[in-house]
């Protein structure tokens, strides 16, 4: 590409407003995906080429991200040099305006770099608020950002024992939901991390009452469709005494998505994609801030 550049961007969003992260076909569009808005922002930079974003990690409607990633190519008009990374971040955020989407960082990468296939791991955190009789008892900073349940406590040690069953390389067919890609995706995944820790409210210092939180963290190179939400739902069921550790092990070994109990799937709004990791060699040093005018 003449005077063009490929960029990797890291970005965050509150998923409640969007129809997932990936582009929504016009005939299906009730509300746009995050990708639609970022591509519109790129297009406002008036590139020679049409904006086309390749997202590393697909998230569903209602799921949030603190750090998703994607790559795209950009060729500027009139033989202008490629944007410096810091200026590109500023420009895209300027054009995203009031959307609940922010570009965190940009890296100039090799022309053959691919955000999805070069990713070494993905980490998700699921947040559970305990002892919430009604959603109005949560601080506003937690609205649609956690799964609020009435239980005042869960058996965390049993949950950790059950989480240990999931760690390692397994056929996770029982923990995936049906979708159009199901027949093409290998259900065998390696789960590197499945941990359960105490968490905090975003407003814990200022809210008038204490709300207890648990954070369930999962790391793998890749996940199946709704795998994290299904694993979370099963682990919370163990914490509630609705499933035993032995029953969760049997569910994993069943290798059958129909074996997953109904009504256990954790809701989308408690889930955050928190990290997409790459090799350092794929992310060269970022360029210094450029004073070029991105509004031209």
Automatic annotation (TrEMBL):
PANTHER family: PSEUDOURIDYLATE SYNTHASE, TRNA PSEUDOURIDINE SYNTHASE-LIKE 1. The active site is at 60 (nucleophile). Gene3D superfamilies: Pseudouridine synthase I, catalytic domain, C-terminal subdomain, Pseudouridine synthase I, catalytic domain, N-terminal subdomain. Residues 11-117, 162-278 form the Pseudouridine synthase I TruA alpha/beta domain. The keyword tRNA processing applies. Belongs to the tRNA pseudouridine synthase TruA family. The keyword Isomerase applies. It is an enzyme of class 5 (isomerase). This is tRNA pseudouridine synthase. Keywords: Isomerase, tRNA processing. One of its GO terms (biological process) is tRNA processing. Substrate binds at residue 124. InterPro entries: PsdUridine_synth_cat_dom_sf (IPR020103), PsdUridine_synth_TruA (IPR001406), PsdUridine_synth_TruA_a/b_dom (IPR020097), PsdUridine_synth_TruA_C (IPR020095), TruA/RsuA/RluB/E/F_N (IPR020094). It catalyses: a uridine in tRNA = a pseudouridine in tRNA; uridine(38/39/40) in tRNA = pseudouridine(38/39/40) in tRNA. GO terms for molecular function: RNA binding; tRNA pseudouridine(38-40) synthase activity. SUPFAM superfamilies: Pseudouridine synthase. Transmembrane segments: none annotated. Its EC number is 5.4.99.12.
């Amino acid at each position: 590409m003449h005077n063009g550049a490929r960029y990797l961007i890291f970005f965050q969003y509150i998923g409640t407003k969007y129809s997932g992260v990936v582009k929504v076909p016009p005939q299906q569009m009730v509300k746009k995906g995050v990708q639609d808005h970022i591509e519109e922002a790129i297009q406002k930079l008036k590139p020679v080429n049409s904006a086309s974003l390749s997202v590393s990690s697909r998230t569903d409607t209602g799921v949030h991200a603190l750090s998703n990633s994607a790559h795209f190519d950009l060729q500027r008009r009139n033989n202008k040099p490629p944007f410096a990374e810091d200026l590109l971040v500023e420009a895209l955020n300027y054009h995203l305006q009031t959307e609940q989407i922010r570009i965190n960082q940009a890296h100039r990468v090799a022309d053959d770099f691919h955000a999805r296939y070069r990713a070494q791991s993905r980490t998700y955190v699921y947040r559970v608020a305990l002892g919430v009789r009604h959603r109005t008892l949560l601080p506003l900073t937690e609205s649609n950002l956690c799964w609020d349940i009435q239980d005042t406590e869960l058996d965390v040690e049993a949950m950790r024992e059950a989480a240990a069953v999931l760690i390692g390389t397994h056929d996770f067919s029982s923990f995936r939901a049906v979708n159009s890609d199901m027949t093409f995706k290998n259900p065998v995944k390696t789960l590197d991390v499945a941990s359960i820790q105490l968490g905090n409210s975003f407003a814990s210092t200022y809210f008038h009452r204490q709300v207890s939180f648990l954070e369930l963290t999962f790391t793998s190179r890749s996940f199946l469709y709704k795998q994290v939400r299904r694993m979370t739902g099963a682990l919370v069921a163990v914490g509630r005494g609705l499933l035993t550790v032995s029953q969760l092990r049997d569910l994993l070994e069943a290798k059958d998505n129909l074996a997953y109990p109904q009504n256990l799937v954790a809701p989308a709004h408690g889930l955050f994609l928190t990290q997409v990791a790459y090799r350092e060699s794929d992310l060269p040093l970022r360029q210094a801030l450029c004073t070029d005018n991105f509004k031209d």
